[in-house]
Design goal:
By secondary structure, the protein is an all-alpha fold. The chain contains 13 helices and no strands. Helix 5 crosses helix 6.
């Protein structure tokens, strides 16, 4: 466990120190912050469009972060030969892969948490679709203050102590944005006291948890690819797998259900099981229709994601075990 924790810690710090991690996370949070202004010109429900845009942003950001994180900490180390300093020590390759998995998943969970807090605050503010709709002043005051304070402290730390700006700002953003969301939850949009969390959606939180599971599954696929491919091909494969997983129910499931004999059914079942079914984690239709996401469904989806991630772990370990890194 000590070796796994040490590798996971190094991997986590290595990922959040990458410039692309901070840029993608800042870009995603910026897009969500600007979304109320962008979605104010639809002909239907503006707030549903806001919700769809934010969830799509979270998913696309997770795809890119998973590809860059997996490639940056495995394939890049293989190409640069820096991995030799690790495997030359008494560290099993399977332990090395587990540590990389844990570090990558922790970095993706951190990014997902910051995006979810931003998502909740943006969704509470809503779209100013009419002139008489007021700004949610507590969200603006506390949210912008938390983001500005994190940037200010990170800038001073970079100038005075030569600390890296991006990881300091990200790690400070976690408690500051959390505190901002919690404090704002006790006020309505006009500073009147209310019971906590009336304007926050529990269903959005469950949907975000499911998106995190989807990103983790995709990260597992990226880790498998990164043992043999570079960052470009890893990103391409991840995008193809995501697109296939979002449409697999439409193309493969009817053929599976229509199979006349046992052999055909088994063949289509294998094809259906190989590609992860991302429709299980994509809850935008349920949110748009006002349906409830039961916790038992989240647990079932977590079980499916856990089994698939476990399969990718063993596959990545097998591929890495036979990879020449010298």
């Amino acid at each position: 466990m000590g070796q796994i924790f040490a590798i996971a810690k190094i991997t986590f710090l290595q990922i959040i120190r990458q410039g692309v991690y901070g840029v993608l996370l800042a870009l995603a949070m910026g897009v969500m912050a600007m979304a109320p202004a962008v979605t104010a010109f639809t002909l239907k429900d503006d707030n549903k469009m806001l919700q769809d845009l934010c969830m799509s942003t979270v998913l696309v950001t997770g795809l890119m972060l998973a590809a860059f994180a997996a490639s940056g900490v495995i394939s890049a180390e293989i190409e640069d030969k820096t991995i030799l300093t690790i495997i030359s020590k008494p560290v099993n390759r399977f332990v090395f892969i587990i540590g990389k998995f844990v570090g990558i998943f922790a970095a993706l969970a951190l990014a997902q948490y910051l995006q979810t807090v931003t998502f909740l605050m943006v969704l509470r503010h809503g779209v100013l679709w009419a002139a008489w709709v007021h700004h949610d002043v507590p969200i603006l005051v506390f949210g912008l203050s938390a983001a500005g304070l994190a940037v200010l402290i990170a800038t001073l730390a970079n100038y005075l102590f030569d600390w890296q700006f991006a990881p300091v700002a990200i790690l400070l953003g976690v408690p500051l944005l959390t505190l901002a969301a919690v404090v704002a939850g006790f006020f309505d949009d006009q500073w009147n006291m209310q019971s906590f969390g009336q304007d926050y959606s529990l269903q959005v939180i469950w949907a975000s948890v499911l998106l995190l599971l989807a990103v983790w599954v995709l990260a597992g696929v990226c880790v498998v690819c990164s043992t043999r491919l570079n960052i470009v091909w890893t990103s391409v494969v991840a995008l193809v797998v995501l697109c296939m997983g979002m449409t697999w129910d439409y193309y493969v499931l009817p053929k599976l259900e229509a199979s006349a004999d046992t052999l055909a059914y088994a063949a289509w079942a294998v094809v259906y099981a190989i590609v992860p079914n991302f429709q299980l984690f994509w809850m935008i239709d349920a949110l748009d229709q006002g349906q409830t996401i039961p916790p038992i469904y989240v647990l079932q989806a977590a079980g499916y994601a856990g089994l698939y991630i476990l399969a990718t772990l063993f596959l990545a370990s097998s591929l890495f075990h036979t990879r020449q890194v010298g």
